[in-house]
Amino acid sequence: MYAIVEIAGQQFKVVKDQKVFVNRLQTEEGKQVAFDNVLLVADGDNVTVGAPAIDGAQVGAKVLKHLKGDKVIVFKKKRRKGYRVKNGHRQALTEIVIESIAASGAKKAAPAKATKKAAPKAEAPKAEASQDLSKLTVAELKEMAKAKGIEGISSMKKADLIAALS
Q1: Whole-number Å distance between alpha carbons of 60 and 33
Q2: Least C-beta-crowded within 10 Å: which of 45, 66, 105, 152?
Q3: Which residues lie within the region annotated Disordered (predicted)?
């Protein structure tokens, strides 16, 4: 069984117990990581292709260590001009080992975090509106004016909007 999964912006063909070097992940060494963006899962003759990703599929991995890749030398030169520049680069990498490939039944954790962050932002302008209108942005004031049915708000400035809402 193998899967094609997107990890840190790159696609990898992975098999269980395979070690993979990926771009640096923001996870501590020894921790478990789950990747939800599985593009293809193949189990013998049974191949499942996502559009673009397979719902419920998940690849589980464990972070082994963080390291730097081999040095790449970047040398630039312009002939007869005396211009020579030499730079080196070592890519930050993370070594992971693939522990499991689940074709279906996995739950995605990312949408739950997004809804928690979005909810406080929607409630904040309403709470501030009763206190002080000068702290709101022009866009928020225009939304409040539109909700109250005030006309001609497109040409109003911030002071005019505050006066109309008061």
Answers
A1: 6
A2: 45
A3: 109-131
125 vs 128: CA distance, rounded Å: 5
With a cut of 50, which residues of the chain have pLDDT below it? 111-115, 122, 124, 127-129
Residues 6+ apart with CB under 8 A from 2: 13, 14, 15, 41, 42, 101
Q: What is the maximum alpha-carbon separation in the chain?
A: 72
What tokens were used for 116? 């928690």
Strand order in the sheet with 19-23: 19-23, 83-102, 58-78, 32-35
So what's the pLDDT on residue 128? 45
Tell me the CB-side half-sphere exposure of residue 148, using CA atoms within 13 A. 16
pLDDT for residue 141:
86
Which parts of 24-108 are beta strand (E)? Answer: 32-35, 38-43, 46-49, 58-78, 83-102
Segment (H or E) for 11: strand 10-15
Q: pLDDT at position 135, please?
A: 80
- The neighbour count for residue 6, using CB atoms within 10 Å, is 16
